[in-house]
């Protein structure tokens, strides 16, 4: 198919003339003025003649905010739209020019192909992105990325606009006159379509609990993350590639056995050392066999998991009225394998899968991530040497992976757990008393800060053998993949945008190149009275913020607290920062999320809004 290119706002058509004649490209060059007005400009008539001689279309009096009006439906398929140095004319200020861009982007969306690009060249400082040097204050810029987001576009690339390299090009149109203007430091902004912000309907999962068919509703914050299959055989996701390469490296040093069966999704029973506000509690209900009508209505499309084996030997029978919870760790599953005797001493057993937990919103806190657990039973007294050997080989394997991707060495350190705060352990601190206290923390240090990617602990299992000690190593595969591939935001691992997955073909690990640059952020505050005599559940508050925003809240900070002297009532004020790493996010969409958040925390947490 011939590539169709649309050029808007051509002053003297010199830019369009530089593109004409390219093989496999059809150029449609337009301007806002009439032909009589344009032909009076220097060299415009010559450029127009050249365009027509090479088969290009030249259209006059085109309003960039109403593009579909100028083309038949079958012609509204442009692969690339260029708009160089747009301006309302005369002395129009930044607000007027933002409005022009907003209408232009909405109009472009109606005539652009799904994979098409929109190129907008702006003078230095106008765009308001960090690429502008010097950068204007946000309120004094055209805020091009935020404006484009309102029409569903993301900034996918940005580079200097080199006017001197464009043969025959001469800028014109300063204050609507046939005068040139300074384009030193000008930037070309390249926009592509964003995948739309998703709306996920409630999801019902079906499974078996000890031969009884049951169903349960997936927590809304996890609907887009459960059953994604990142670790399955057909997957090329970097999380699986890291897992496979680590396993292959460690198999050179240890007899290794992969535990291939799917670990149980639901657990039951008391977990020592785990705060109940951090787990996703589930109430399953008995499931009847669906009728033919229910099957046709989509009930059969509910997510189906394999049979659930319980990890607690104390559980006898299946009492559906009891509460269960989504697994917050794979350690209980590893323990169950040990206690069943299906465990070979001296062999490194490997278990991996996604785990789920409620957590505060911080850069490295994830409500779901893929955990990889290594377990090795050794004779009492040799656990320290086993631990040292395991850590040494894990470090060597990660070094090898990172150097192959980035070309430079990464610092990997082992620290005593006592030097870490619980909040720094990225969710590894749970189950201390039940599965052995964390003794060491594995950190990967890139630039200045260190990131906890794993822990080491030991545990004794007297019922199995009084002479055996089990050494556990637990790794966060998601964080490892991020650090190795240069992925700065954990949410990118869960994107549905194929521009992420296409960068990792055939299970290869590469440095990730973001397809959404300088995404806009929006700040909102919410304040409320806490119910008298009740403890405010901050984790629940953060979880609701994740849910209503579709994980677009990147920061949730307490900025003020106040206690009324007369009544003792306590008021809290939080500041939310919204930003998407992979999708267009507009101020209007964020305002809707903020309103929904206020409604949900009022109803579910019984807060009185201020």
Automatic annotation (TrEMBL):
Catalytic reactions on record: tRNA(Phe) + L-phenylalanine + ATP = L-phenylalanyl-tRNA(Phe) + AMP + diphosphate + H(+)
Gene3D superfamilies recorded: Bira Bifunctional Protein, Domain 2, Ferrodoxin-fold anticodon-binding domain
Protein name, per record: phenylalanine--tRNA ligase
GO BP term, pick one: translation
Domain FDX-ACB: 517-610
Localization in the cell: Mitochondrion matrix
Source organism of the structure: Pterocles burchelli
PROSITE patterns: FDX_ACB
Domain of life per record: Eukaryota
Family from the record: Belongs to the class-II aminoacyl-tRNA synthetase family.
Gene Ontology CC: one annotated term: mitochondrial matrix
InterPro entries listed in its UniProt record: aa-tRNA-synth_II/BPL/LPL, BMT5-like, Fdx_antiC-bd, Fdx_antiC-bd_sf
EC number from the UniProt entry: 6.1.1.20
Annotated keywords: Aminoacyl-tRNA synthetase, ATP-binding, Ligase, Mitochondrion, Nucleotide-binding, Protein biosynthesis, Transit peptide
Enzyme class: ligase
Keyword rRNA-binding part of the UniProt annotation: no
SUPFAM superfamilies tied to this protein: Anticodon-binding domain of PheRS
Gene that produces this protein: Fdxacb1
PANTHER family: FERREDOXIN-FOLD ANTICODON-BINDING DOMAIN-CONTAINING PROTEIN 1, PHENYLALANYL-TRNA SYNTHETASE
GO MF term list: ATP binding; phenylalanine-tRNA ligase activity; rRNA (uridine-N3-)-methyltransferase activity
């Amino acid at each position: 198919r011939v590539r169709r290119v649309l050029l808007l706002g051509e002053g003297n058509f010199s830019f369009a003339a530089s593109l004409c004649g390219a093989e496999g490209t059809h150029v449609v060059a337009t301007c806002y003025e009439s032909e009589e007005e344009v032909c009076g400009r220097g060299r415009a008539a010559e450029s127009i003649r050249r365009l027509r001689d090479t088969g290009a279309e030249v259209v006059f009096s085109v309003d960039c905010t109403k593009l579909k009006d100028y083309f038949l439906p079958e012609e509204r398929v442009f692969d690339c739209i260029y708009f160089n140095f747009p301006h309302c004319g005369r002395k129009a200020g930044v607000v007027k020019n933002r409005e022009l861009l907003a209408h232009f982007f909405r109009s472009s969306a109606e005539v652009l192909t799904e994979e098409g690009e929109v190129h907008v060249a702006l003078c230095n400082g106008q765009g308001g992105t960090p690429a502008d040097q010097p950068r204007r204050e946000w309120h004094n810029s055209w805020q091009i990325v935020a404006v484009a987001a309102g029409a569903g576009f993301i900034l996918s690339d940005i580079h200097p606009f080199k006017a001197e390299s464009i043969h025959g090009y001469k800028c014109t149109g300063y204050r609507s006159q046939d005068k040139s203007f300074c384009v030193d430091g000008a930037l070309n902004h390249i926009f592509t379509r964003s995948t739309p912000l998703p709306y996920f309907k409630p999801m019902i999962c079906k499974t078996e609990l000890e031969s009884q068919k049951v169903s349960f509703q997936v927590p809304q914050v996890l609907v887009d993350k459960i059953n994604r299959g990142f670790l399955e055989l057909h997957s090329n996701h970097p999380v699986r590639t890291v897992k496979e390469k680590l396993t292959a490296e460690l198999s050179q040093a240890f007899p290794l056995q992969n535990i291939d069966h799917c670990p149980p999704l639901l657990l039951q029973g008391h977990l020592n050392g785990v705060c109940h506000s951090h787990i996703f509690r589930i109430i399953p209900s008995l499931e009847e066999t669906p009728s033919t009508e229910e099957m046709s209505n989509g009930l059969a499309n509910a997510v189906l998991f394999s049979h659930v084996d319980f990890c607690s030997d104390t559980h006898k029978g299946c009492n559906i009225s009891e509460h269960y919870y989504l697994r917050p760790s794979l350690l209980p599953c590893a323990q169950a394998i040990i206690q069943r005797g299906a465990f070979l001493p001296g062999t490194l057993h490997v278990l991996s899968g996604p785990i789920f937990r409620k957590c505060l919103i911080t850069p490295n806190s994830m409500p779901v991530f893929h955990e990889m657990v290594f377990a090795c039973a050794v004779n009492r007294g040799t656990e320290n040497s086993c631990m040292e050997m395991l850590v040494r080989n894990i470090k060597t394997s990660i070094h090898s992976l990172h150097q192959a991707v980035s070309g430079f060495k990464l610092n990997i350190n082992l620290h005593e757990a006592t030097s870490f705060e619980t909040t720094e352990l990225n969710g590894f601190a749970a189950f201390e008393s039940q599965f052995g206290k964390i003794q060491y923390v594995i950190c990967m240090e890139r630039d200045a800060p260190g990131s906890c990617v794993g822990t080491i602990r030991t545990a004794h299992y007297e019922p199995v053998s009084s002479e055996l000690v089990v050494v556990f190593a637990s790794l966060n595969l998601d964080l490892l993949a991020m650090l190795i591939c240069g992925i700065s935001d954990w949410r990118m691992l869960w994107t549905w945008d194929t521009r992420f997955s296409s960068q990792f073909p055939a299970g290869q690990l590469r440095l990730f190149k973001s397809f959404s640059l300088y995404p806009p952020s929006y700040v909102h505050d919410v304040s409320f009275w806490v119910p008298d005599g009740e403890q405010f559940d901050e984790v629940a508050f953060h979880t609701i913020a994740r849910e209503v925003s579709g994980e677009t809240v990147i920061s949730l900070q307490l900025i003020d607290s106040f206690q009324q002297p007369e009544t003792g009532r306590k008021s809290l004020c939080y500041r939310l920062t919204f930003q998407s790493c992979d999708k267009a996010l507009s101020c209007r969409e964020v305002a809707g999320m903020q309103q929904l958040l206020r409604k949900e925390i009022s109803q579910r947490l019984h807060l009185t809004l201020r």
